[in-house]
Structure to design on (80 residues):
């Protein structure tokens, strides 16, 4: 049996993370899916695995940190 290409594996991870977000409270796991999707693009260009991991980590961190203020604003309870 042939093994899966790395970009396919990253896409599977992206789909799993994004689907898992539907079943969780908050908006956190989705960004892992975005990072995995970005890593899939890098893997499609046959870049080394360490570049794939770097892109995954950097994109995920940027998304998580960039959306933190937005998610805090939305999740705060409104005063009555």
């Amino acid at each position: 049996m042939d093994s899966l290409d790395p970009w396919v594996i990253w896409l599977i991870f992206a789909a799993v993370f994004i689907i898992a977000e539907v079943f969780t409270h908050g908006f956190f796991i989705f960004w892992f899916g975005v990072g995995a999707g970005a890593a899939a693009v890098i893997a499609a260009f046959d870049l080394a695995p360490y570049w794939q991991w770097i892109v995954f980590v950097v994109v995920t961190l940027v998304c998580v940190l960039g959306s933190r203020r937005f998610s805090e604003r939305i999740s705060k309870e409104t005063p009555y």
